[in-house]
Amino acid sequence: MPLIQTVQTALFSKTAAMKIDSAVVALLKLDPEQTTVSGAGGGGMSSASTSKITTTLPDGTKMNYFMKTGKGKSAETMFKGEHASLNAIHSVVPTLCPKSFGHGKFSDNPSTSFLVTDYLDLSGRMSSKSSSGMTLAQKLAKLHTTPAPIPSGYEKPQFGFPATTCCGDTPQDNTYTPSWADFYANRRLRFILSQSNKSNGPDKELTSLVEKTCTDVIPRLIGDDHLNNGKGVTPVVIHGDLWSGNASQGKLPGMTSPEDVVYDSSACYAHSEFELGIMKMFGGFGGGFLKEYHELVPKTEPVEEYEDRVRLYELYHHLNHYALFGGGYRSGAVGIMRGLVGKFGGRGEV
């Protein structure tokens, strides 16, 4: 259910080219006479158009960039969030994702928003069964063991993010919160329930189960005084939408051979295990991934509740997919909540 109106131009034929907008020229400090724009595959959401910018530098070398474009306020919000997301990840593990150079609106067509990043060359991904450099597990481990920065005006790292990010087409409430349990209950589960009620209509059963999950399960399972023997968890940056379609092998600028990379991020500062919810929901990362990852990032205590926590984190993505697409995602969410409420219900309130 795309919220961004796709930009349809001759840009996306293999033979056509488009004049580069002056706003992009200014952002990247390009020579428009030495720059071309052509179609590019990939780019994540079907609601955004993608293109490749190729420019020739004064010394004769060529430089490539990747650009997304879309129309409307939703595109502007999405690209602002993705810009912040990519750079939050890139600042910790530069080889994990493209760097974003900026976002804005076309000067010649202000209704069109754009995002410009490093060009990620995925052309060799099908021919390479193994990547060079650090593995995805190693890169995510580094990401998930680096504490979040302290936001301006705060005394310690917070759960949340400085920009609205979009998981799919859902703009997420990332308001900074000192408590992880509070953030997950209110900024994720109750928030996405309200989105679902808007798109699918009021649902008494779903509402009741989400409330029971927030008031009973969350304090018991991920309460700040429960995790890590009462020490809680430290916020770290997560990708936020890491299903297998947002991970691959490719070459970023400076790489001589393909490495494990991710893209189309929806970052926030969160409990590291939140990342694993959508990875479990859709699979595709191979049986050895979690073994290698958890050798570097130990499971949060209490370890015996790890599987239930991951199910709780998977729940958000079932609810988000139901809010966006309807259909069978509701039954997945209901099944998770019934299981967790039956096991952990009746013991607290958030």
Automatic annotation (TrEMBL):
SUPFAM superfamilies according to UniProt: Protein kinase-like (PK-like) (SSF56112)
Q: Looking at its record, which EC class is this enzyme? A: transferase
Q: Which reaction does it catalyse?
A: N(6)-D-ribulosyl-L-lysyl-[protein] + ATP = N(6)-(3-O-phospho-D-ribulosyl)-L-lysyl-[protein] + ADP + H(+)
Pfam families recorded = Fructosamin_kin
**This protein's UniProt keywords:** Kinase, Transferase
Q: What is its EC number?
A: 2.7.1.172
Known PANTHER family for this protein? FRUCTOSAMINE 3 KINASE-RELATED PROTEIN, PROTEIN-RIBULOSAMINE 3-KINASE
Family designation: Belongs to the fructosamine kinase family.
Q: What is this protein called?
A: protein-ribulosamine 3-kinase
Q: What species does this protein belong to? A: Zasmidium cellare (Wine cellar mold)
